[in-house]
Amino acid sequence: MRFLTLLLCVLSFQAVADTRVAILDFELKDMTLAPGIPAEIKRTASIKPLLEGELRSAGYHIVDIPLQAQHAANSGVGYLFDHADVAAQLGKNFGADYVVVGRLHKPSFLFAYVMGNLVNVSDGRWMDKFITESKGPNSELTIKAVEGLAVKIDNRLDHRYTPPPPVKQGSQQP
To answer: Which of these, 84, 131, 122, lies nearest to 103 by C-alpha position?
Structure first.
């Protein structure tokens, strides 16, 4: 009986350790009067690697989907963000269990929303749609928004991500 319990624990840990997540490049939806400035393009491009790093730190296996394949599956701005079935097929082609399709939505110069739609590849449907807010263009605030997104994604998947503790003002980072 003890052996069976141990075996089940090992198998369940192995199943959790093998959760394969693909994160597509985030797109920028800039609704401000000066859309697409280089700083926003750079911030948008930083979100995918930040999210990959956060989920990787929790033990998720990050599946790489080449940008060329993502572009080939995309029929226009927002298409993959709105079509779970197409995003799921893209993820299936590269061996992912889940796909995160993301967007940086900027309705104002004062704040932006980091949005991520989580797709279950096995059934081609949305598992959930997440939004975190980032006030201002500060890179530290974008990092915190991505950490918040990672928490939300992990809460729907394996419950094993712990965000870094907040840095106190005036303290030195190692």
So the answer is: 131
Distance CA 47, CA 23 (A): 10
* Residues of the chain above pLDDT 90, percent: 76
| 26 within a domain of the structure (yes/no) | yes
- Is residue 48 a contact partner of residue 26, using CB atoms and an 8 Å limit? yes
Instruction: Answer yes or no: is 172 within a domain.
Output: no
- pTM, two decimal places: 0.85
Amino acid symbol at 104: L
| Average pLDDT for 98-127 | 96
Containing domain of residue 96, as a range? 20-155
Mean pLDDT value of segment 41-63: 97
Token pair 């104002």: residue: 108
Phi-psi domain of 114 (left: phi exceeds 0; alpha: psi -120 through 50; beta: other): beta
* Partners of 30 in the β-ladder: 106
State the maximum Cα–Cα separation within the chain, in Å, rounded to a whole number: 67
Residue 87 per-residue DSSP state: H
Reduce the DSSP state of residue 86 to 3 states and report it. Answer: helix
The whole-angstrom separation of Cα 174 and Cα 157 is 31
